[in-house]
Amino acid sequence: MKIISCEVYSYKLPLVRQLQINGEKILFRKGLILRIKDEEGYCGYGEIAPLPGLNTESLDETLKQLKTFSAHFPDTVPPDLWKLEGAFEQWFDGISFAPSVGFGIETAVLNLVANRRKTPLYKLISDNSRKRISVNALLTGKREDLLKETAQMLSHGYRSFKLKVGRSDMEKEVALVKELSCLIGTGATLRLDANRAWALDDAVGFTEAVSHTSIEYIEEPLRDIELLRDFIERSDIPVAVDESLHLLDFQLLSSFERIKAVILKPAVIGGLEKTAEYIRRAENLSILPVISDTFHSGVGLSASAGLASGKLKKDVPAGLDTYRYLADDLLVERFSIEKGCLDLSVMDLNRKEPSPDKLQKVM
Questions:
Q1: Cα–Cα distance measured from residue 314 to residue 333, given in angstroms and rounded to the nearest whole number
Q2: How high is the pLDDT of residue 207?
Q3: Residue 192 pLDDT > 90, yes or no?
Q4: Which CATH number is associated with domain 132-351?
Q5: Among the CATH numbers 1.10.150.530, 3.60.15.10, 3.30.390.10, 3.40.1370.10, which is that of 3-119+353-361?
């Protein structure tokens, strides 16, 4: 198989509500779509959308790197890239791409291979892929609206919920966590994400205040990751690692008591192949790998969903509810989350190409 052309398009999609990520306020989701084509006319699409406040690369920088990919990469595609076992790294041959670019290139190539084989992407990634994967509901908004939304989502089949904390008055957040825990009960789980908001004593104080609630884990509680072991010694709540993952020795995570999970964002880690390796390492250490997305359109979301479907040993609720925060999608037919699950059998990108009227060619 040979790649005979590469084209890049820009897009801009409105969000349902303003997002604030590490101080960055976002009203629109902006990104690039890579379209590659082979000698038989098959196409593959990949999404490159660095998220302000999370990815360090800019959109302009990603476009420059895509020009490098287009101009300097060998056109012959190795046959075993879909295994996600190191073939992409060998094919890149030492060329370093920004994480969002690596994610977009890999997604485009895998979608191209899937199209040629006339198979959905999630089935290409693994013969043992699940058709349905669980999703954790992302809770935002004012207290009254949030409680109402949680009750509705419980009735619609969601069994995992995620709440951002460390953003407002601690007493009010503690009270909200207790209310949510009572509302959710034992039939669902509650995950907390502090986004490195607290000093050690504040983090410990918060977890002590909510210690009698049912919390699956708290994600990134500390501003200073060097104090993680101290926090674990003083808190009974399990911990998840996300932004700090690159600062820690992965192999040593198992030596920390109560490290429950690692949050894996393929577009931040550097692609599907690197994320697949992280999944293997986490599962070998009996740590829960949680696939999460960074507010991609349906193009990028389908790749993360396929990875969660095909590479996880068990169905772990994924952080893909970000899709609900897009007021529009690049795909003509939007995906749906039903009964707290994504149905991958209807997420087939082979039949769901981006709408041309939402793209502007830039390369």
A1: 28
A2: 95
A3: yes
A4: 3.20.20.120
A5: 3.30.390.10
